[in-house]
């Protein structure tokens, strides 16, 4: 029987990419505990990904990228997270947003073309910094306290952003800001400069190496052409599946560790390893049910998004459900893995305790559980009204 993680590989090209990513994941796994303990940003991981071509996976082919599908992005991110969840989640924001920009064309062509060329040539990356301590997650509709004031040739941006993943390594990023004179909100592309500073606030229970520090902008200049309209094609937000893919990868790593442990560990009162015990087999079966169900939903949602381009906006509920099931089921899988391994799973010498901490971060990535359930309920109620 082949490995569970290979279940959704469809062809030789995908298998070749998967093998390359697994090689990176194995290297990152060896470094993960150090970065987790220190809360340090894994710069070498990103240098390795640039050299391996990972950062350009979602860049259009016309610029030298791979232009992979959402389905393939899910597969790659799951495998990378198998080695290091923090690195996978962090780079996922970059890869996912490039895919999003590719499909929506919401950026001016000149800026997107320039970004793609910089990714391929220099390993540049992008992320959007929108969360703030005062307004919370932008997915809940809060108005940013960061402001944009018009000046000669552009805008002066002032504010403080939280959860700014990849902040230690980005040379450019997008921020949301309120424009008082228009009573409106817009996004602005900012190039890192001396009016931008990083406050190293990221000291969390899990995902400790994502570099999600606070970014402070003190009248940082954004050129007139760097205001982003936000217009473009509605793609349903499929790119956000990079998030559940990451947590599935962590759960898969926990599952494999627990199974390997169960097959090898034999207490002196047993004739064979604990994998022969009915109770342990029951727990393994529960892990399989949770993990396989979640993976099926995520890969099916990604495939539908790839195939049904016209109906992408109507897939938001399915995409949200996939994320909901993947993150919650992954938490259950890691918990069961720790129960199988027992008290030693709490040891810092084992990766399970890191998996346990990292996987919980999925609850706080968009879309949030209550938002997904609200959307599903609205769909159900509107379905009756449609009759």
UniProtKB/TrEMBL annotation:
Residue span(s) of domain Acyl-CoA dehydrogenase/oxidase N-terminal: 13-98
GO molecular function: oxidoreductase activity
Keyword match Coiled coil: no
Pfam families cross-referenced by the UniProt entry: Acyl-CoA_dh_2, Acyl-CoA_dh_M, Acyl-CoA_dh_N
The keyword Flavoprotein is assigned to this record: yes
Keyword terms: Flavoprotein, Oxidoreductase
Enzyme Commission number(s) from the entry: 1.-.-.-
Domain Acyl-CoA dehydrogenase C-terminal positions: 244-362
Protein name, entry field: Acyl-CoA dehydrogenase family protein
Organism the protein comes from: Paenibacillus solisilvae
């Amino acid at each position: 029987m082949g490995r569970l993680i290979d279940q959704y590989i469809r062809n030789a090209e995908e298998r070749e990419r998967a093998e390359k990513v697994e090689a990176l994941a194995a290297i990152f796994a060896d470094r993960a505990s150090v970065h987790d303990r220190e809360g340090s940003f894994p710069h070498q991981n990103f240098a390795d990904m640039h050299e391996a071509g990972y950062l350009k996976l979602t860049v259009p082919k016309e610029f030298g990228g791979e232009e992979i599908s959402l389905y393939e992005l899910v597969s790659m991110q799951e495998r990378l997270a198998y080695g290091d969840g923090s690195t996978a989640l962090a780079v996922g924001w970059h890869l996912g947003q490039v895919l999003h920009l590719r499909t929506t064309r919401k950026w001016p062509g000149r800026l997107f073309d320039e970004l793609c060329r910089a990714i391929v040539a220099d390993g540049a990356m992008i992320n959007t910094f929108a969360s703030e301590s005062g307004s919370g997650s932008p997915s809940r509709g809060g108005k940013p306290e960061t402001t944009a004031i018009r000046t000669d040739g552009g805008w002066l941006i002032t504010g403080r952003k939280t959860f700014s993943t990849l902040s230690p390594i980005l040379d450019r990023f997008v921020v949301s800001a309120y424009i008082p004179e228009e009573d409106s909100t817009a996004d602005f592309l900012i190039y890192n400069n001396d009016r931008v500073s990083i406050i190293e606030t990221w000291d969390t229970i899990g995902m400790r190496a994502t570099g999600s520090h606070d970014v402070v902008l003190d009248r940082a200049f954004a050129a007139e052409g760097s205001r982003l309209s936000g217009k473009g094609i509605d793609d349903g937000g499929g790119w956000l599946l990079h998030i559940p893919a990451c947590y599935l990868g962590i759960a898969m790593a926990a599952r494999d560790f627990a199974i390997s442990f169960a097959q090898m560990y034999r207490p002196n009162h047993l004739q064979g390893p604990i994998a022969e015990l009915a109770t342990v087999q029951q727990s393994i079966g529960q892990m399989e049910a949770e993990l396989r169900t979640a993976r099926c939903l995520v890969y099916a949602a990604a495939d539908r998004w790839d195939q049904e381009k016209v109906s992408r906006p109507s897939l938001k509920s399915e995409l949200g459900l996939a994320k909901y099931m993947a993150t919650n089921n992954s938490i259950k899988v890691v918990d069961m893995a720790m129960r199988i391994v027992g008290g030693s799973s709490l040891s810092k010498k084992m990766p399970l305790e890191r998996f346990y901490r990292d996987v919980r971060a999925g609850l706080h990535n968009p879309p949030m559980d209550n938002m997904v359930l609200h959307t599903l309920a609205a769909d159900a109620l509107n379905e009756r009204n449609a009759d």
